[in-house]
């Protein structure tokens, strides 16, 4: 009975696998981490080459052209409505088809995005940095905000 | 077939292991770090198939919030001749948009870890709709189900919520649809030591052209460069094809650009066939 069930489940999984494998996966391997050493009046920058930069992995059809674009906040907000400014420069994002390619990755402006191709293994790695700009009078609290990464095939 | 069915019980353990292995190789093992997987990425519907579906799978250990929006947009080109997805906050008048009459369900859900969900689309095209292809870009946003924290210390800390939005395509074909492409002109331009072929394209018929483009460069009858890739042409556009070859020596060259739907149609029966098209230009590099 057990082996019959095993055979049945295996067949079902085998039939389902090709349909799922033709898709697109976007994985957040790591978020931007400013840590807890943020002080009033002192900018804190994380470049795309920093170990604390956000890292995304895109997996899809080998060699297919994709558009990568970010929607970025101007500030983060705490539960009391206080805001903390956040900025993204024209080189704060970078991409590579090499998972270890963070230092040699090609920089791009996250606000205007980039069109590139997935690797022959169907992979693309993206890194994103940012700068927070606390005021001299910035109240201590936890500030949060959304970053949206748009991924689409262009063809 | 009977032979296979007779043999199946005898070798069921082998088949079980084989299929588990095959599934692991094709899906599981290659995506161990995946979080949210969406398939397929292109949907084709028509008057005889007014429903469509896609599957979203959460392979992470955390619940994922999932939201589906229906955008209107299509690939276009910018002033640099590069392709980008042009989306519209408000659908322009007379646009070939299906956003008004295609419904999606569910639009919002929380997907538990290791679970999958089918997203369904259904079309109700209005009476008197002219024949042609109508477009939607379903955008599926996913993020970890969020928790709002209040910092009890006096430190400044941040929490940035990363939302991944995968934008797919949905083409609805109503009535008699056809497609084609015309290469109106090709112009060779040198920029930063590289060659660009500026190509004016006009889409024919009443549906998007989905095919392959190949770019070749010849000198003295010898092919120096060749590249082929998938292309989607929804409207008239000017594209810049970069010839990825540096330090071209002075002389007379011929560039050829060709379009075909054959390769793509072989992989996907939903691709509309169109006659192959090709155009060449001669130019001199001084």
Overview of this protein structure:
The complex is a heterodimer of chains A (155) and B (286). Chain A is elongated, with a radius of gyration of 20 Å. Chain A has one helix spanning 2-21; strands at residues 24-30, 44-46, 54-59, 65-71, 75-77, 83-87, 93-96, 106-108, 114-117, 123-128, 130-133, 142-153. By secondary structure, chain A is mostly beta strands. In chain B, a hairpin with a 5-residue loop joins strand 4 (64-77) and strand 5 (83-88). Chain B has three helices and 18 strands. Chain B has helices at 2-10, 12-28, 262-267, and strands spanning 36-39, 42-46, 51-58, 64-77, 83-88, 102-105, 108-111, 116-123, 132-144, 157-167, 169-174, 179-191, 194-205, 209-219, 222-233, 237-243, 251-260, 277-285. Chain B is mainly β and 286 residues long. At the A-B interface, helix 1, strand 1, strand 3 and strand 12 of A face helix 2, strand 1, strand 3, strand 5 and strand 9 of B. Strand 12 (142-153) of chain A pairs parallel with strand 10 of chain B, so a sheet runs across the interface.
State the secondary-structure class of chain A: mainly beta
Computed structural class of chain B: mainly beta
The outline of chain A comes out as elongated
In the predicted model, the low-confidence regions of chain A spanning at least 5 consecutive residues are 9-21
The end-to-end span of chain A amounts to: 48 Å
Q: SSE order of chain A in H/E notation?
A: HEEEEEEEEEEEE
Largest sheet of chain B: 7 strands, mixed
| Average pLDDT level of chain A | 88
Count of helical regions of chain A: 1
Q: Secondary-structure element order of chain B, as H and E?
A: HHEEEEEEEEEEEEEEEEEHE
Shape of chain B: globular
Strand order of the largest sheet of chain A: 1-3-10-7-8
Q: What gap, in angstroms, lies between the N and C termini of chain B?
A: 67 Å
Instruction: Show the largest interface.
Output: A-B, 65 and 61 residues
Classify the beta-strand content of chain A into a percent band: 35-45%
């Amino acid at each position: 009975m057990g082996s019959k069930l095993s055979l049945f489940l295996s067949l079902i999984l085998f039939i389902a696998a090709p349909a799922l494998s033709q898709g697109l996966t976007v994985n957040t391997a790591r978020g931007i981490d400013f840590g807890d050493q943020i002080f009033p009046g002192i900018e804190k920058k994380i470049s795309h080459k920093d170990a604390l930069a956000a890292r995304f992995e895109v997996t899809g059809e080998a060699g297919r052209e994709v558009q990568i674009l970010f929607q970025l906040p101007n500030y983060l907000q705490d539960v009391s409505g206080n805001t903390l400014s956040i900025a993204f420069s024209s080189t704060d994002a970078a991409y590579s088809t090499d998972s270890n390619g963070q230092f040699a990755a090609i920089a791009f402006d996250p606000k205007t995005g980039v069109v590139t191709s997935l690797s022959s293994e169907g992979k693309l790695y993206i890194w994103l940095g940012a700068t927070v700009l606390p005021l001299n009078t910035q109240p201590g609290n936890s500030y949060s905000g959304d970053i949206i990464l748009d991924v689409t095939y262009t063809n | 077939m009977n032979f296979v069915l007779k043999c199946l019980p005898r070798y069921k353990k082998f088949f079980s292991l084989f299929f588990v292995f095959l599934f692991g190789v094709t899906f599981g093992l290659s995506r161990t770090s995946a979080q949210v997987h969406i398939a397929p990425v292109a949907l084709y519907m028509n008057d005889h198939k007014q429903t469509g579906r896609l599957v979203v799978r959460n392979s992470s250990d955390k619940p994922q919030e999932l939201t589906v929006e229906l955008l209107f947009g299509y690939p276009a080109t910018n002033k640099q001749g590069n392709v980008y997805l042009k989306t519209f906050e408000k659908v322009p008048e007379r646009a070939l948009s299906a956003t008004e009459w295609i419904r999606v369900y569910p639009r919002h859900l929380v997907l538990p870890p290791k679970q999958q969900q089918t997203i369904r689309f259904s079309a109700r095209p209005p009476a008197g709709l002219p024949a042609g292809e109508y477009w939607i870009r379903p955008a599926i946003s996913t993020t970890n189900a969020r928790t709002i924290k209040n910092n009890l210390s006096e430190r400044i800390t941040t929490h940035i919520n990363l939302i991944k939005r995968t934008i797919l395509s949905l083409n609805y074909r109503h009535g008699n649809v056809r497609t084609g492409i015309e290469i109106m002109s090709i112009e060779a331009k040198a920029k930063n030591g590289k060659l660009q072929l500026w190509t004016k394209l006009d889409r024919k018929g009443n549906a998007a052209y989905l095919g392959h483009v190949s770019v070749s460069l010849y000198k003295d009858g010898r092919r120096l460069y060749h590249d082929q890739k998938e292309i989607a042409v929804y409207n008239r556009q000017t594209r810049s094809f970069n010839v990825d070859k540096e330090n071209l020596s002075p002389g007379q060259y011929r560039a050829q650009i060709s379009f075909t739907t054959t390769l793509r149609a072989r992989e996907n029966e939903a691709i509309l066939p169109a006659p192959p098209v090709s155009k060449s230009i001669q130019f001199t590099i001084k």
